[in-house]
Amino acid sequence: MNLDLRQYSVRTDLAVESKELAETAHGGPVSGIHEEVEELDGIKITRLDVENEQVSRQIGRLVGHYVTLEVPALRSHDSDLQERVAAAFSKEFIAFLDKIGIGPGATMLIVGLGNWNVTPDALGPLVVENVIVTRHYFELAPDQVAPGYRKVSAVAPGVLGITGIESSEIVQGIVDRTKPDVIIAIDALASRSLERVNTTIQIADIGIHPGSGIGNKRKGLTKEILGVPCIAIGVPTVCYASTIVNNAFDLMKSHFNGENGNTQSNTKQIMGLLTDLSENERLGLVKEILEPLGHDLIVTPKEIDEFIEDIANVIASGLNISLHQAIDKDNVAAHTH
Questions:
Q1: Could you tell me how many helices (H) and strands (E) the chain has, helices first?
Q2: Closest CA to 159 of 208, 189, 125, 205
Q3: Angle 304-323/79-99 helices, nearest 10 degrees?
Q4: How far separated are the first and last CA of the chain, in Å rounded?
Q5: What is the pLDDT of residue 33?
Q6: DSSP strand E in the chain: where?
Q7: Is the separation of the CB atoms in 195 and 182 below 8 Å?
Q8: With CB atoms counted within 10 Å of each terminal CB, which end of the chain scores lower, N or C?
Q9: Please, what sign has the CA dihedral across residues 277, 278, 280, 282?
Q10: Who's near 54: CB < 8 A, 6+ residues apart?
Q11: Which of 175, 166, 156, 154 is closest to 216 using CA atoms?
């Protein structure tokens, strides 16, 4: 059997994971990526700049800026931690806007992508429910708007299967009529790491593609398509079954290597040729077995119902603090529904 591995790749929407995969493949750091890592009180912040087209092709990420917040304890439903994450997110988002040249007076359109009927895909619509929208006040009673608020509108355009219209076409019509300066698009993502599912937030200035988290390649929300800068905010809520099986091989290999008295030769006796395969080759083998049976499922944790509400509130709170200077970051909960 000749296995064509070109059709297989490790499925991830996270820049930090793409960088890790590239470094593993190259056996060391990849040039053309500027990285800053900061740890603060259980929150790991990674700032990545993909600086040129060569490294963009190497890691499979567009040239641009990426910020990732990883919070392993975010699944614990700790309200104090959620407030700290919202504050950290708002600080990073303010710095991100400044870095890409978006000033405090820029008008924003927040787009909550996803299907509100499917829990792992409901992140975008839930964030839209909780952000503070002000555009109608500026339009109807501008003299009554308090200082410190900017013009913000929001929409959850649904998905193609519900509306029959591409999300990008709906957003394009809104952009043409309302003329926002910036679009903030929020969507669920996929991760290659079970540890990052439901614990990670990514900010990027490259736009977003509806359905990318489940492998749908359709017309996206980008500056090239919509004519205005598009910032993407995403949270991995799903993982492919093939990715989970592939990760299980790594965990078993590490476990057997770590056993007292075990050697690599012993591990090879247990796991056979699997120890010699690269990650992409192993993933290709797993997919070759699962896909004809229709079993390469998209998997989400059973706690997703509670988590999706929590993380949507975290992102909405962070956006409210970031976009409106009048919002007191110490009392932001009072401003969300």
A1: 12, 9
A2: 125
A3: 50
A4: 57
A5: 94
A6: 33-40, 43-50, 64-70, 108-112, 152-155, 182-190, 200-204, 230-240, 298-299
A7: no
A8: N
A9: positive
A10: 32
A11: 166
Q: Where are the beta strands (DSSP E) in 206-333?
A: 230-240, 298-299
**Angstrom distance (rounded) from CA 333 to CA 314:** 10
Listing DSSP states for 13-59 in one string gives --HHHHHHHHHHHHTSPPTTEEEEEEEETTEEEEEEEE-SHHHHHHH
- Beta carbons of 20 and 196 less than 8 angstroms apart: no
Q: What does the block give as tokens for 192?
A: 């290659």
Structure pTM?
0.84
Q: How many CB atoms lie within 10 A of CB 274?
A: 15
Give the model confidence (pLDDT) of 48-83 as tens digits: 999 999 999 888 899 999 999 999 999 888 999 999
- State the Cα–Cα distance between residues 301 and 311, nearest whole angstrom: 14
Nearest 5°: the CA angle 198, 199, 204 is: 95
Residue with tokens 């790594």: 250
| Each residue's pLDDT tens digit, 225-244 | 999 999 999 999 998 877 77
pLDDT in tens, 243-286: 777 777 777 777 776 665 555 656 666 666 666 666 667 667 76
Cα separations (Å) of 173 from 138, 157, 229, 297?
20, 11, 16, 35
- CA proximity to 121, closest of 332, 308, 316: 308
Q: Which domains does the chain have, with CATH numbers?
A: 5-243+297-335 (3.40.50.1450)
Q: How far apart are CA 221 and CA 4, in angstroms?
A: 32
Please compute, for residue 130, the number of CA atoms within 13 A of its CA located in the half-sphere on the CB side: 26
Average pLDDT, the chain: 85
| Residue whose token pair is 């927040």 | 110
Among 8, 10, 14, 9, residue whose Cα is nearest residue 198: 14
pLDDT tens-digit series, residues 80-127: 999 999 999 999 999 999 999 999 899 999 999 999 999 999 999 999
